[in-house]
Write a structure and sequence with these properties.
The complex is a heterodimer of chains A (279) and B (191). By secondary structure, chain A is of the alpha/beta class. Chain A has two domains: 63 residues; 200 residues, Vaccinia Virus protein VP39 (Rossmann fold), CATH 3.40.50.150. Chain A has a seven-stranded mixed beta sheet. Chain A starts with a helix and ends with a strand. Chain B contains six helices and nine strands, in the order E-H-E-H-E-E-E-E-H-E-H-E-H-E-H. In chain B, the strands form two sheets. Chain B has a seven-stranded parallel beta sheet with strand order 3-4-2-1-7-8-9, with helices on both faces. The mean pLDDT of chain B is 91. In chain B, strand 5 and strand 6 form a beta hairpin. Helices cover 31% and strands 19% of the residues of chain B. Chain B is an alpha/beta fold. Classes of the chains: A alpha/beta (279), B alpha/beta (191). At the A-B interface, helix 2 of A face strand 6 of B.
Chain lengths: 279, 191
Amino acid sequence: MEITQKELAEFISCFKLHSSYDLSDYSENSLMRRVDKVLSDNSLNFPNLLHKISTDAVFCELVMKQITVNTTELFRDTLLWQELQYKLLPLFETKQKIRIWHAGCSNGLEVYSLAIVLHHMNLLNRCTIVASDINPDMLEQARKGEYSLRLLDEFKAAFDNAMKENPYDSEFKNLSFETYFEVNKKKECIAVTSCIKDKAEFVRIDLVKMDAQFDETFDIILCRNVLIYFSNSLQKRIFEYFYTHMNPEAYLILGMQESMAWFMNSMFEKKGVFYKKCK
Amino acid sequence: MAIKHPYKAIVIGGSAGSFQTVLHILESLPKNFSIPILLTLHRLKHVRSGLAESVSLTSHKPIVEPYDKQAIEPNTVYIAPSNYHLMVDDDYTCSLSTEQPVEFSRPSIDVLFASAAQVYKQQLIAILLSGANKDGAQGMKIVKQCGGTVIIQDPSEAEVSIMPKSVIDIVRPDIIMETEDIITFLKNMVK
């Protein structure tokens, strides 16, 4: 099942009319694939999809959940987490309060990755972390901090790669995985421990609308592999929003294959794998 | 030199047993072979770099792991970054995605081929090499439907024949040939 560009445009305007979501600035290629998936997951043809959207508000919420991509991993990209630990966070060690916003946090695995690094560096107590996502189901899982037991080997490998090796002094750290995760055999899950649980506030934000406005500014904003689903113009709007909500000397962290080169102007400068706010 | 062929892009996919073949094809292409090439090779998730570097060593062309929305330029080879799907957008830019794996693969060859087919239509050549799963076959079907040219490595030459064979099961390839003939075919395009 493959929808046409014309159908995609119809879908976007119908969805905008009958739900609270505006997908017109989503990047077309991915959105088309996602709508194809919505059709097959719900065994609908295109006219039925439009009909259901215009008559069923609950279904609209389901569609939005199926459209958003929730891929995330513990310590996705080892290099980034090492750079964060050995290059970026040491710059904040003297700061009394560190404010962090994780935009597009999915099920929270990277929020907990960050909390582990901060805890290990004795910085977690000084941090306020806000983690946002558009998908309420993901936020609920993130708050719970419970993950499928099937991921255990993957978790342990990612933890070892990111936390035990210091690429800058070849020191091997004797850090225990069990400090941060415990296996709950009864619930068949891996649960985050109290060291890192409840340290972040999980809130629902649609980056398209920026409906939850922040009064505060942040020292670090993470937004990884989220903006790839948006058009250039929406990306630019979000970068500007980030910029105005960052402290001087603040940093933005994107996905490893995301770049700001297309808007690189006086707002940010690239520092290694990070972007620093320009004065 | 006047270019007579109608092609605007080449996509290549491969998995187990295809890496040396890809290297050999890229190093054999002449300098004036300017058509952009997009590659999706299955690779280990946590092996981030190395692939682009080792291909760069043997090829005349710059090899890049593209950033999201990077423009597709002539004379360049683009490799799907580890753990991302690579797609082509209407405005001839690369587009990346972390959507779920397709045929157990991210990057997936189907995803690259299908998106490139819809953008380049009859101006696309798609080449599928050795591999141990079915990723690429559905993509080839779409390449064919959009008027592109479907080439597969001769399964009898491929180290693992499952991947090229899975194309034959669902669509008739335009050309089935061995690596050396693929290279000659590509070289002749710019003669």
